[in-house]
Amino acid sequence: MNYIVIPIDGSEYAIKAIDYATTIATNADTTLVLLNVQSTPEDVNQLEGTAKAQMEEACILEGKQILQRAANYADKINVKYELAVRVGLASIEINQEAKKKNATCIIMGSRGMGPDVSKALGSVSHGVLHLATCPVTFVPASML
């Protein structure tokens, strides 16, 4: 089975990444991994036991809600997909999911929902590119 990891943050750029992935997924055995990464507040490590578990559970629930729109879109265009939510630093978690799935590639929007940190690429995009062990494709904003 071939996997393409597509980070989903709720932005239009992420939806365009799904569109682009369907154009290059020529193998019928390709599954899109729609991945949302939730960051935790910096002080989460100070929490213990139940409080920390509740915080992570809330993050996962929020991630699932964000993924729902992407899942609805994937259903509409009739592509095979899996949903995944991870908690942590986005660039690290995206690459870990790609490694876990032995992904063919990562396809993502060049920008996301965050503030404009970099003129060329968003900060998560930049981090993913530098940590990647598989090809990374960025879908430009001009495709919107």
Hey, roughly how much beta strand do the residues contain? 15-25%
From the 3D structure, determine the CATH topology. Answer: Rossmann fold
SSE string: EHEHEHEHE
Question: How would you characterize the largest beta sheet?
Answer: 5 strands, parallel
Principal-axes geometry comes out as globular
CATH architecture: 3-Layer(aba) Sandwich
Q: CATH superfamily membership, which one? A: HUPs
What value does the Rg take, in angstroms? 15 Å
- List unreliable stretches of 5+ residues: none
SS elements, strand count:
5
Family: Belongs to the universal stress protein A family.
Protein name: UspA domain-containing protein
Concise overview:
By secondary structure, the chain is an alpha/beta fold. The protein contains four helices and five strands, in the order βαβαβαβαβ.
Can you characterise this structure?
- By secondary structure, the protein is of the alpha/beta class.
- The chain has one domain (2-143): HUPs (Rossmann fold), CATH 3.40.50.
- The chain is 43% helix and 22% strand.
- It contains four helices and five strands.
- It has helices at 12-24, 49-76, 90-101, 123-131; strands spanning 2-7, 30-38, 81-87, 105-109, 136-139.
- Strands 3-2-1-4-5 form a five-stranded parallel β-sheet.
- Strand 2, helix 2 and strand 3 form a beta-alpha-beta unit.
- The protein is globular, with a radius of gyration of 15 Å.
- The model has no long low-confidence stretch (mean pLDDT 87).
- Pfam families: Usp.
- Residues 4-140 form the UspA domain.
- This is UspA domain-containing protein.
